Amino acid sequence: MWLRPEEVLLKSALKLWVTERSNRYFLLQRRRGYGEGGGGIAGLLVGTLDTVLDSTAKVAPYRILHQTPDSQVYWSIACGASLEEISQHWDWLQVNVMRTLSVFDSDDDITSFVQGKIRGLIAEEGKSSSGDDEDPERFREAMLRFERLFGLPKREKLVTYFSCSYWRGRVPNQGWIYLSTNFICFYSYLLGNEVKLVFSWDEVSRLERTSSVLLAESIRVCVHGEDHFFSMFLRLQQTYLLMQQLADYAITRLFDKETFSMDHPLSDPALEVHARNQAFRSFFRLPQEENLCEVYESFLWVPFNHYNTLGKICVSERYLCFASQDGSQCHLIVPLREVVSVELPDRSSRALSVGVRGTRAFRFSEVRDFERLAATIRRKCSASNFANCCHDWQLKERMKEQSWQIHFAEYGRGSGMFCTKKTRDLVVRGVPETLRGELWMLFSGAVNDMATHPGYYAALLDECMGSSSLACDEIERDLHRSLPEHPAFQTDTGISALRRVLTAYAHRNPKIGYCQAMNILTSVLLLYAKEEEAFWLLVAVCERMLPDYFNRRIIGALVDQAVFEELIRDHLTALTDHMTDLSFFSSVSLSWFLTLFISVLPIESAVNVVDCFFFDGIRAVLQLALAVLHYNMDSLLCCHDDAEAVTILNRFFDSVTNKDSPLPATVQQASAPANHKPAQSVDISDLIREAYERFGDIRWEEVESMRKRNKLYVIQTLEETTKQNVVIVAQDVKFSASQLEELYLLFKRQHFISCYWSVSSPSLQNHDPSLPYLDQYQLGQSQFSALFTLLLPWAPNTHSHSHSHSLTRSAFRLADENRDGLVNFREFICTLDNNMWVSCRMKLALKVNLRTYATINKVQCSYVCVCVCVCVCVLQNQFVRLSKTLYSVFHGDEEEESLYRAVARVTSLLLRMEEVGRRLQETSPTKSPQTSPQITPQTTPDPIQSTAGSDSAPTSLTPDPCSPTGGDSSPKSPPPDPDSSPSDTSPRSPTSPTSSATSSPTGTSSSALDTPVDSPGDPPAGGEDWSFSFEQILASLLNEPAVVRFFERTVDTQALIENARRNQIRDTH
């Protein structure tokens, strides 16, 4: 098939291709390992690399290259799976292209002609085969194979799959990579060697394209510090961009739980729509609800330069945008609410004229489908119902204002203004104070937000004024710290306006609420904009221009710090060579980014930085930060420590002045220490101009790409810090540090597994990244039970029994100390710690069991019985259920028969003791006949608490849905149907306890217990219930060596953790 022409450097091919045919302008090559003569060591290596387990091979064995005689660069123009297919392309080139090329005199013209011809062929093929590329049957087979190989739930959506090679050391494993909404998976099986990888997207810390001597291009995926390399993709860039989108969306969910409740944007077949809309909004700075609807290539008449510029028209729901071909020469944003007419003046040139308010019009020409575009604009204009907001600006006659007035007259003013290089030059020189608020609103896009939400701010104030919250308390604390030296904030008028704007935004966006540095930024906005405009400017900054900056983790700022470090390495190599650790610049520049230099520069100079920020976004801040370091390069290279570098930078910022400010330079500069010479003043306009001249080649697309690349690493670093903090807090248990880390990863994965496929999960509903690190990840009862069951040290067969579920429910109640229905990692690990170590295992088992049944019978026994105190008795149904639980736990053990006999002896002994006690009471002449002990509320010590250390019973209980007489019986060997014995589901008669001592919990005779060593005596006479004390039960069990051996076995904790890791996802369904 024909390929879009791409450059190929033959020297990097490492002789992996053999030339079969050639002429002056084309080469036909075969990949080694294919066709005749493909043997040899090189052929075997290449053949192994290209082996694919399906017919849809991703590496074509034949290709055609275009070349010119005097050039070292070749262009790949076609590929084929067979010699016949590629020969057809070769013959077509010989007949239709070779003769034509002889008429050209320049090699560049030949290359341009060939590239244009190939692109035309691809376009024609696309028209004829549109809609035929999708193969639902093949994708359905891939989905079934994906579910079978990796054991993921059917609710996990497969996005796409590719053939590739996974490199384990120096050996490639050819297989398939599967990309789903939550996981990245790989499977390979060659010659008995199976490779299976399953990683969650939120575990990926690095994702980037790399190249090496052996691998021309590959994708590097770093998970938990381990690198995994995938190569041999047919469309490497497309695969990388898709993986980047999936990872970016998954990492967002670590601090934004609302994304779980939304449909995954990449589960739709149109995978590029989400990324295209995001890039469209970011480039033109449009509201988040805007989506790119249509794109047209056209020319736009530029009246001030008197020529047509080529570019693209982008139409969304409420905006008509235009960007020149390179994106920097000219761009235009026209709100459809401003459009008053759409005309077709010249059909021969396919022209379109769009008139806006103010007797201005924009002329587009050579629009391929201009009639459709005109109809689209008319339809959207008629459907839009926006409030028109007209501003009557009164400008003072000053030099800057005159320059801007000339600019407005030539380039337009307001929403339809052309933003060009001249506009940037005026911004760099400084915006006049009377125009600053207007231009900030325009450049940031806040003017569109305010126009489309009339009355929103006033209604928001009515809702939030008078309310009390944590954000309001923090706002009140910081009000008088916001530009305290400025006269505007030394009166109640300025303080009240600042309070209203911050409170309204905290009410609008509770996810952010209020964070430090917002007060400083809002104070500057209020100096040059009206109160409502300042509110919408704050919305634009926090939600679009500086995303994720103003939250408790300041993730956005940390990401831009990483971008700043990367730019330092690229542009300030001398400083990079001198400084071994660039993290110093990240820490010292954090306030620069959070406050847009307002906290380090005099306010008269800082507003010029804000001007550039609203025009060019974060790119302007990065350029200025680089310029600051470059200006102080010589001084920084002579520094001996970080403190000296900080001093140099602080002195530099104090020396920055604004020559256009009415204040003299001596007032603008801070007083220098007595032992330092006053630094030479630097004008802010000159500094900004140098930043644009020296670092103006930094493109917006480059910054966004670096942001996405570093976002994964930054968030995973924060998650790693959270893990370390949690592990430190939980170090009072007996697990090693490495085991705690592995258990934390299991706990965290269980939390997110519960969020992946259930919007109503308690873990998701209570997920809040702003909580302390110990409570960020919590498990509900079902998630706790699933993970706790995987880590039980008893026989694995018990996991399928109903008593296992009862035990995990009871263990959850013990772990949930604050009774909120959720368990954090510390509570989980303490419960698991008691379960792992021999000194507490038996006591925990008894406590869990008795706790459940005491809850059920709380009508008959008080809270003291729940705590299992020394003088509290274990009632009949509780004792029977305890025996059943022990039978269930012992089932499948290698000493099963001995353990069953031990339980039989204990129950027989206890029943005899009860019978003797009852007879003594009946024959005593001084005591009246007595029934089973009546439990009254009292405060007595808990024997479990005294013997098991930290296992304290909580003060309240939630009723257990499991009835003490419900069909919870566990099978023995051989087990009958647990629900088939009606005798176990009815209340016990006086003779029932005797049979329970010599038979299985189901009431069926067991071969192991048909002839117990000690047969119990007759059951107590009468219809009274009977009971035992907890100490009697514990002491009797401790007298049985088999039981003691069972509970004192050493647990292989690492093996349990490995087992849980393998089966965690599979057991979720």
Automatic annotation (TrEMBL):
Subcellular location: Cytoplasm, Cytosol
Region annotation Disordered: where it falls in the sequence: 919-1026
Occurrences of domain EF-hand (ranges): 803-838
Transmembrane segments: none
Amino acid composition bias (Polar residues), ranges on this chain: 948-958
Domain Rab-GAP TBC: 430-617
InterPro entries named in the record: EF-hand-dom_pair, EF_Hand_1_Ca_BS, EF_hand_dom, GRAM, PH-like_dom_sf, Rab-GAP-TBC_dom, Rab-GAP_TBC_sf
SMART domains in the record: GRAM, TBC
GO biological process: glomerular filtration
Pfam families linked to this entry: GRAM, RabGAP-TBC
Keyword RNA-binding attached: no
Keyword Repeat: yes
Low complexity composition-biased segments: 923-947, 980-1007
GO MF, one example: calcium ion binding
GO cellular component terms attached to this protein's record: cytosol
Record keywords, A-Z: Calcium, Cytoplasm, GTPase activation, Metal-binding, Repeat
Protein name, UniProt field: TBC1 domain family member 8B
Gene: TBC1D8B
